[in-house]
Write a structure and sequence with these properties.
The structure holds two protein chains of two kinds.
Chain A (H helix, E strand, L loop, with lengths): L5 H24 L6 H4 L20 H24 L1 H29 L14 H6 L4 H14 L1 H6 L1
Helix pairs in contact in A: 3-4
Chain B lengths: L8 H19 L8 H18 L6 E3 L4 E3 L1 H27 L4 H17 L6 H19 L6 H31 L6 H9 L4 H20 L8 H8 L2 H26 L4 H23 L5 H20 L6 H33 L13 H4 L1 H15 L5 H16 L3 H20 L1 H8 L12 H19 L7 H4 L8
Helix pairs in contact in B: 1-2, 1-4, 2-3, 2-4, 3-4, 3-10, 3-13, 4-5, 4-10, 5-6, 5-10, 6-8, 6-9, 7-10, 8-10, 8-11, 9-10, 9-12, 10-12, 10-13, 11-12, 11-17, 12-13, 12-16, 12-17, 13-15, 13-16, 13-19, 15-17, 15-18, 15-19, 16-17, 16-19
Classes of the chains: A mainly alpha, B mainly alpha.
Chain lengths: 159, 490
């Protein structure tokens, strides 16, 4: 019975061998002459503007992803219900109203917690006074810091 | 598709409360956020009333027999809801004064408890898995609730990664069972179907059982899958550690009891040695490492690991004899319930001390007899009970397991009993470290410790309960009837 899996094993061995062999062979034959330009991260020919490490992105994207999932799931469940609407009858209607009600609660929470406010940044209630002290966008500050770090080789190396 | 709405009443009330807490929280001003707790408390008590209204109503099935409310389920539901009341009571001051997101915390806590309440009724692999995830997922967030503290972040991340890993392992085992049994998901059907498999399929079934057991071993922090527990408990807010140590772990055992005694009962010859190993390793390692602890929450974490070992011992006592299995089952259930009471009490006392000493070293309990006499006496009772020394309920719990082990006979039963006895004696040393500090050492600051009334009440009630259980062990005599769950699948 196990012999049926022999081709799969052979395939796996071949795949690994090919990968390892390519790396080893190219290492043996290629010239190795690095310079700073070659070592910099490739960004479509432009000068790299940010360090690959320590890059920050706004937590808002996370909120958007969560919102998307909530409504995505709602749609996924609405479709089969719509297709079988007559067969499911009143029971299905009530269940669906219940389900949409649950999603709506999540929506109310996001709205009240400030997840939909794009003009001002989403701040934790405990950090509210902290935010008023520094009205500048934290993203902009992070960008400047990183840009400065790019020009200062020592700092860039230390990060 | 039959739905028994009365049987589902506790879950409905709790689910409604969860939604209410979440919505009310976002409309409350910052100063009144704590109001989420009384709302949650009323909901939990209402849910408890729902459970009480179902007592004596017989076995009730919903959703085609996948969700069953019987005495076993009601007992555990009641236990979880009482635990919810206690954890809510411990949380109020802790979270109100610590600058936490209170509404979100109560929402997550109650969601976890909804999973706990669903667990003992779930008689289907899918539902069992859903309930277990509903317990764990909010737990990941709650463990990391002390956002400013690196230790809490570590606690959350460790718990999350280990939780997801164990879920993956368990789910893989469940998928194999689905395949081996030809599509059975109900526990009783799995029991019947697994008895019919042989040859290569049986080997596959054994592998599946092993995966599921390993997954649950992570959840109940059995050695060698225990390493996440001490770090997670230490980093979490103390009420969350109480929740994880009691509700989350007992929910794991409630699921494991159903799986092992109903679905996999026929394969006991395969998994009894596994549980014997898990049990011996868990209690021995837990007790030995606990001996070296100087931080109370870590001490309680390792003590909890050792206690898990005692409960796992009952699984290793399963044989072909139904009467002996019922004994083991009843001993497990009794021990789990008593363990819950004493561990909740110990955490309540720890919450009281954490107000003055957030680092919670053992030495921080020094002189507690002067600064907080009720807490000191209570903590002493809980420690003695955890060690299994009379006159406390913990003694009966250990005695029942010991008795079941001796009655099982063979070489395994008495051997396990001896290991357990040796471990219990060793555990006395570290359990008495805390009472020694409280009664024989003097506090650096002799002023009275201000303990919230709710926390004192929890400690007092737990203390009285443990002594009462010792005086009236007959309350547990009826547990033998509840073990009708045994042998359903065989």
């Amino acid at each position: 019975m196990l012999t049926e899996y022999l081709p799969i094993v052979a395939m796996a061995v071949l795949a690994v061998a090919f990968g390892v062999a390519s790396l080893v062979v190219s290492r043996m034959f290629r010239p190795h002459r690095p310079n700073p330009v070659k070592l910099s991260p490739y960004e479509c020919g432009n000068d790299p503007v940010r360090l690959p490490r320590g890059e920050r992105f706004s937590v808002k994207f996370y909120v958007v992803a969560m919102l998307f999932i909530i409504f995505d799931i709602e749609i996924i469940f609405l479709f089969p219900w719509a297709v079988r609407f007559r067969q499911l009858g009143l029971f299905g209607l009530v269940e669906m109203a219940f389900f949409i009600g649950l999603v709506f609660v999540a929506y109310i929470y996001v709205w009240r917690a400030g997840g939909l406010d794009w003009a001002t940044s989403v701040e934790a209630p405990a950090d509210a006074d902290l935010a008023s002290d520094s009205p500048r966008d934290p993203m902009a500050a992070a960008d400047e810091e990183l840009a400065a770090a790019m020009h200062d080789a020592e700092v860039a190396g230390a990060r | 598709m039959n739905i028994d709405y009365h049987a589902l009443l506790p879950e409905f009330i709790l689910a409604g409360t969860i939604l209410l807490v979440l919505v009310v929280d976002v409309f409350l001003p910052e100063r009144a956020k704590w109001f989420a707790m009384p709302i949650g408390l009323i909901g939990v008590v209402g849910s408890l009333a729902g459970v009480l209204s179902l007592i004596g109503a017989g076995t009730r099935e919903s959703f085609g027999g996948t969700y069953v409310v019987d005495e076993f389920a009601l007992l555990f539901k009641g236990f979880f809801l009482v635990t919810a009341v206690v954890v809510l009571a411990l949380s109020l001051r802790y979270f109100r004064e610590g600058g936490f997101y209170q509404g979100e915390y109560y929402f997550l806590l109650l969601t976890s408890f909804l999973g706990c309440v669903m667990m003992p009724s779930s008689r289907d692999l899918l539902l069992l898995f859903l309930a277990l995830e509903l317990v764990s997922a909010p737990g990941f967030l709650m463990a990391a609730f002390r956002k400013g503290d690196v230790k809490s972040n570590e606690a959350g991340v460790k718990f999350f990664i280990i939780g997801v890993l164990s879920t993956a392992v368990m789910l893989f085992g469940m998928s194999l069972i689905y395949g081996v049994t030809g599509g059975a998901t109900k526990l009783a059907e799995i029991g019947v179907a697994l008895d019919g498999v042989s040859g290569e399929m049986e080997t596959l079934a054994f592998a599946a059982i092993l995966f599921v057991v390993v997954g649950f071993a992570f959840k109940v922090s059995a050695v060698p899958f225990q390493f996440w527990a001490p770090d997670t408990y230490e980093g979490s807010p103390v009420p969350v550690a109480a929740f994880l140590a009691v509700a989350s772990s007992v929910a794991g055992f409630a699921g494991l009891l159903q799986l092992m005694f109903v679905a996999f009962a026929g394969q006991h010859e395969f998994w009894v040695p596994i549980f014997a190993f898990l049990s011996i390793a868990t209690m021995t390692v837990g007790n030995l490492v606990a001996l070296q602890q100087t931080q109370v929450v870590r001490l309680l974490a390792y003590s909890g690991i050792a206690q898990s070992g005692y409960i796992l011992l009952t699984f290793a006592l399963v044989t072909d004899d139904a009467a002996s299995n019922r004994n083991a089952f009843a001993a497990a259930v009794t021990y789990i319930l008593i363990y819950g009471v004493m561990n909740l009490g110990a955490f309540a006392a720890t919450v009281a001390v954490s107000r003055r000493h957030p680092t919670l070293g053992v030495a921080d309990f020094a002189g507690l007899r002067e600064t907080a006499p009720v807490i000191a006496v209570g903590m002493a009772v809980f420690m003695i009970s955890l060690a299994g020394v009379p006159p406390t309920g913990g003694f009966w719990g250990k005695l029942l397991i010991f008795q079941a082990a001796i009655e099982r006979g063979g070489t395994l039963g008495p051997a396990l009993a001896v290991v357990m006895l040796v471990n219990s004696v060793a555990s006395v040393f570290y359990y008495l470290v805390v009472p020694r500090q409280m009664f024989l050492r003097d506090a650096a600051d002799p002023s009275r410790l201000r303990v919230p009334a709710l926390v004192t009440a929890v400690v007092a009630v737990a203390m009285v309960t443990l002594v009462a259980i010792f005086v009236l062990p007959n309350v547990f005599a009826r547990l033998a009837e509840i073990s009708t769950l045994v042998g359903l699948g065989a």
